[in-house]
Amino acid sequence: MLTWQDILEFAHNGNPKPPRRVEKSPSEWQAELEQDTFYVTRLKGTERPHSSDSCTIFEPGQYVCVCCDNLLFDGDEKFDSGTGWPSFTQPSSVESIAYIADSSHGMQRIEAVCNVCDAHLGHVFPDGPPPSGLRYCMNAIAMKKRD
Predict the structure, then answer these.
(1) Radius of gyration of the chain (CA)
(2) Which phi and psi (to 5°) does residue 102 adopt?
(3) Chain-centroid distance, C-alpha 72
(4) Whole-number Å distance between alpha carbons of 52 and 56
(5) Residues 60 and 94: beta-carbon distance below 8 Å
(6) Among residues 55, 68, 114, 137, which one is catalytic?
(7) b or e along 30-51 (b: 16 or more beta carbons within 10 Å of the residue's beta carbon)?
(8) Is 137 annotated in the active site?
(9) Which of 71, 126, 129, 138 is buried most deeply by CB count within 10 Å?
(10) Residues 66-123: pLDDT tens digits?
(11) What is the pTM of this model?
């Protein structure tokens, strides 16, 4: 189980080796993705809170990166954080997500990106439920659910 200390170590000292890599030019991503998806995943945007019903649906399944199908989260780790974005307590594996220190917008946060294709997913915070205490606050548009 990952802890906040693990996340900080990755963000400041290097991330786990990804299971594979998918690299495309910005124009290739833009040609493949819907405009809103491109904005969030490739330009580090954020969707509006409560803009997806993904925050209120809690069913078995897996959540994968919308850009490269990398497995990110298991539905069993999803919880209602009340923030307006889907939230999870743990990634599917240590190698699924990479972490980047983010000081944008006058805040100190840890950005979560797909470790395979570098898609912006959201941020991780140390205010989640036990036992990990982690809250992966993800953009719904950056993921798709697989049953």
Answers:
(1) 14
(2) -130, 115
(3) 7
(4) 9
(5) no
(6) 137
(7) beebeeebbbbbbeeebbeeee
(8) yes
(9) 138
(10) 999 999 999 999 999 999 999 999 999 999 999 999 888 788 899 999 999 999 999 9
(11) 0.95
